[in-house]
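[step 3/7] fold_predict: job queued, chain A
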Amino acid sequence: MHENSFTSDRILANTKRIVQENQIRFQKKFGQNFLIDPHVLAKITAAADLHPDEAVIEVGPGIGTLTQELAEGAGKVLAIEIDRHLVEVLEKTLAPYPNVTVISRDVLEVSAEEMRKMTAPYEKVKMVANLPYNITSPLVMKILEEAPFVSQMVLMVQEEVARRMQAVPGTKDYGSLSVAVQYYAEPEIAAFVPLNCFYPRPKVGSCVISLRRRSEPGAEVKDEALLFAVVRAAFNQRRKTLLNSLSNGLAERFTKEQIGKALAAAGVDPAQRGETLSLNSFAMIANSLYNDY
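[step 4/7] structure written:
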């Protein structure tokens, strides 16, 4: 216990020293909360299970505490940091690690093709990140949809978002994000992370979640875009019945009669609500509508 506390204290002291020496000003818009707990660092690296024949993309490396651990396990680390001042700090803290490349970009503006080129020649690629919470959903969907070469993501995210990603039908956390993530990946919460594991201390609890890409999508669909349109329509008006929410949300493409027929063909009660449906049920509805389009 004492040894663990000492290790945490040492990381915190080192973090504060780097912050002070480099006059780092924490920017709320970038969600800058540096991880200082060695147990959480260990859980992240264990969940990622990195090997020397793999590359890892890290988003928001901060001052490089996690980056150093990743560099020890992976063959190559591509660290993407939006804060240019922190890039200057990283050049110092990561100097002993020649297998790390740091770029100063907004990760949402880095294309999947660019990521692929920058992690070459490694075929196996994973993503590890202590994410700014405001980019969690768009980044996760960008990687799942556009970067099939990323086999796994291990992400520090807001606890509420992690619960939504792995939620099952019939629960309050189940929604469109749950369906979309589970279509592409198998989500598993690896750790719950207390507020005192960060400096500065955030206002909300966090989780480490692993998203391991499925070898095949979680359901057979004829048109992925139509599937996600159905899912969004079902959850946009959660209190309405499926027949009404889908009729409103898909009004430009389908009549209420067509939607009723699709629900019947999928064996779904039109009076049900979206949060009761499984991924497979949504897929069956979308496929029925596709056949009728």
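[step 5/7] annotate
The chain has twelve helices and nine strands.
Residues 2-21 form the longest helix (20 residues).
exit 0
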